Amino acid sequence: MATYIIRRVIWTIPVILLVILLIFSLMKQIGGNPFRQTERAVPAQIQANLERKYNLNKPWYAQYGYYVKDVFTYDLGPSMRLRNRTVNQIVQEHFPVSLKLAILAVAWGLLIGLPAGILSALKPNTLFDYGGQLFSNIGFALPNFFVATLLIYYLAVRNDFFPTNGWPTDFWDFNDKRIILPSFALGLFFMAYIARLVRGTMLETMQQDYVRTAKAKGLRWRRVVMRHVLRNSLIPVVTAVGPLIGLVITGTFVIEIIFSIPGIGRYFVTAVGARDFSVVMGITVLAALVVILANLVVDILYGFLDPRTREARS
């Protein structure tokens, strides 16, 4: 297992290099001048000095090499639009906000979606099952920006149940009511996806021969469900949920804009509009690392959920 983990970590290096190359190439195609603050043109001498400072006067492959070196030395460079601000400082300030929002959204998905899917599978074609399927269909059909708008209107504006002004500055403050509406709006799709996936995999697992054999031996139904059905059903769930968690973490910008949350996603949109290339590159590389890490965690969980997988990959 340790050998497999080391091999998997090593394989992430070319993935990171490819991601940097693709984003670097796309940013080159965007064009624009990140040093131009107004409609007036930047003087030629100042433009040349700025390009020399940020290595923009070098060939593209040299710029790519410089950036790769900086990434692997944990230096994402300075912002091209904000004075005395580095990309590292921007990430340290805004990424924990997005991370907390994503963690809360995932928690909603696991706390509601997982039990809903299990209950629907254990009681098929009943009121519980129909309610769970209705919930899943609603979660899939409604986009999160529409859900966020409804939540703000009915629970914040008309009834004033939950405040939506701002975001708690303390990362570990989970008692603030301001975190409820945005995290629920972001996690609704995750809840619906988990509920439907768990229901489908559990219904399929309960038709397997080893489950029938366990019931024929006279084992208690609760033990059959926990030991045989649920554990084996979680393997495909983990397969799909792992990358989805990474996408939730990196896809918070819509909710952040609607609720005015100072997260990294909202800042990313601002940086794209401002042609702040170094910030866009840094946040994109960070998002890729989050998704890669989520996939790595999935591979490790395989070994705990299925010992055969651990033996085959060690």
Measured as a percent range, the helix fraction is: over 70%
Alpha-beta content class: mainly alpha
Q: How would a crystallographer describe the biggest sheet? A: none
Number of strands: 0
For the terminal residues, how far apart are their CA atoms? 4 Å
The H/E string reads HHHHHHHHHHHHH
> Could you tell me the radius of gyration in angstroms?
24 Å
Strand content: under 5%
Named CATH architecture of the domain at 96-313 = Orthogonal Bundle
- CATH fold naming of the domain at 96-313: MetI-like fold
The CATH homology group name of the domain at 96-313: MetI-like
Q: What is the general shape?
A: globular
Please tell me the overall pLDDT: 81
Low-confidence stretches: none
How many helices does DSSP assign?
A: 13
CATH class of the domain at 96-313: Mainly Alpha
Condensed summary:
The chain has helices at 2-30, 44-53, 60-72, 87-122, 127-141, 144-157, 180-205, 209-216, 221-250, 253-258, 264-273, 277-305, 307-313. It has 314 residues and is mainly α.
Describe the structure.
The structure is a single chain. With 314 residues, this protein is mainly α. The protein has a domain at 96-313: MetI-like (MetI-like fold, Orthogonal Bundle). Helix content is 74%, strand content 0%. It is built from 13 helices and no strands. The chain has helices at residues 2-30, 44-53, 60-72, 87-122, 127-141, 144-157, 180-205, 209-216, 221-250, 253-258, 264-273, 277-305, 307-313. The longest helix is centred in the first third of the chain and has 36 residues, at 87-122. The radius of gyration is 24 Å and the shape is globular. It starts with a helix and ends with a helix.
